[in-house]
Amino acid sequence: MPSLHPTVRTIKTYTVTPRPNPQAPRQFHLSSWDVAMLSSHYIQKGLLFAYPPNLLVEQIIEWLRSSLEEALFHFYPLSGRLQVATCDKGGVTCHVEMGYEGKGAELLHAVADGIRIADMMAADGQDLPKFLKDFFPLDLAVNFDGCTNPLLSVQVTELIGGIFIGCAFNHVIGDGTSFWHFFNAWAEITRCKAVGKDVMLSRPPVHNRWFIGGYGEPPIKLPYSSPAKFVVRFSPPPLRERMFHFSSESLAKLKAKANRECGKSTISTFQALSALMWRCITRARCFPPEQKTSCRLAIQNRARLQPRLSQNYFGNSLHALCATTTVRELLDNNLGWAAELAHQIVSNHTNSAIRDLVHKYMENPFVYSIHMFDIHSIMIGGSPRFDMYDCDFGWGKPLGSCSGGAHKYDGKISGYPGWEGGGSVDLEVCLLPEYMSALERDEELLAVVSPPVKLGVMLGTFSK
């Protein structure tokens, strides 16, 4: 069994700097969706792998370091540094400086003493291990003192029988779609280099930032006197974190139930699942019947804009949509009623709605803060559509995916694809301990949740 306080030791830290890219501007301007994330924590996601056979750890680190150099050549904003400037006539601007001295990304080689791959994966009914946050680099809060923090930092941690690759990716540079685009491209480059093939990315990133017309040239000016006015530090109370697994068969039944109950055929699987979690968590919290409660969904804009943004657009392109009702209405009505609320806010998020939101933002720019989220709500981020389990560095499919300590608060839910594919979904749920205990007994949830895939199946040591 692992120690209650396992030791993660850093063996060596590399600064990875790509060769110059002639297409990279000296100053990389940020869109409205980007600057709104200036106070956000890093995106911290990572993948667990069985130890590659016939490879020394030194070979693995060198492959990853060399391929990261190439990846940063293509995803060049990640090798710059944030620059925040106070304007002469008031206000603050921010851009990425590509010519900044000391640019590049960090790559840390670490060892987790006594931790096995099985210890990384919570068994059915168990909380996620607290030591997972030690498998990710960088502090949670952005440091604007000199703007020297890298925009990307990677930690490769040796385990007993495996390795974990954890990335900390500054949210100003991109959203979850861009994060996994980069991660998969890095893996593709590593596979090519391992067999001596030329690197030709299947999905080159698109770096032209999207700006709405009518507001002059970038950079966007924020109405603050200094970064101290918008960088908010957040320390969550003690939380319980659990991964709930939903098989494709269970989700198909849930979707059919939601559509049947609301008399439609338009409710998606994820809308039905979001409605389920909203109802079950609200019930677990025991709020008063007339209390307002909300379900917030992070929705990307790429395919909704006209003309569409490329799916390879590298940056932020998302909004958090909000469905609101009272506790009484949410729980007195059925699943289909709640799913229809979620469906409506997604359906209404059209090209014109997105442009209206950006126009309103440009009239009064601001920076998002976790404190803006209502404590009576849930927030669902991530996506089961992110391509995590095809992220092959040349030694096989990942065994699992998990996050660090960033962006964790009561009511935060992150969506992941299920390891077995086929439309299965994993939800990482963060709640106050008393709420999680009540959720674990909720009959509506228990009727849908499924046992997780066994580690032996993932390793191929026994069949399903």
Q: Helical content, roughly?
A: 25-40%
Q: Please report the total strand number as a whole number.
A: 15
Distance between the termini: 26 Å
Order of helices and strands: EEHEHEEEEEHEHHEEHHHEEEEHHH
Domain count: the total is: 2
Q: Provide the CATH topology of the largest domain.
A: Chloramphenicol Acetyltransferase
Query: CATH H-level name of the largest domain... which superfamily?
Result: Chloramphenicol acetyltransferase-like domain
Categorize the overall geometry: globular
Widest beta sheet: strand line-up: 1-6-7-8-3-13
Key descriptive features of the protein:
Chloramphenicol Acetyltransferase, 6-stranded mixed sheet, 11 helices, Sec_Metabolite_Acyltrans, 464 residues, CAT-like_dom_sf, alpha+beta
Describe the structure.
The chain starts with 7 loop residues before the first strand and ends in a 5-residue tail after the last helix. It is of the alpha+beta class. The chain contains 11 helices and 15 strands. The chain has 2 domains: 222 residues, Chloramphenicol Acetyltransferase (2-Layer Sandwich); 220 residues, Chloramphenicol acetyltransferase-like domain (Chloramphenicol Acetyltransferase, 2-Layer Sandwich), CATH 3.30.559.10. It is globular. Helix 4 packs across helix 7. It is 26% helix and 23% strand. The model has no long low-confidence stretch (mean pLDDT 91). Strands 1-6-7-8-3-13 form a 6-stranded mixed beta sheet. It has a 6-stranded mixed beta sheet with strand order 9-15-14-12-10-11. A 3-stranded antiparallel beta sheet has the order 2-5-4, with no helix packed on it. Keywords: Transferase. It holds the Pfam family Transferase.
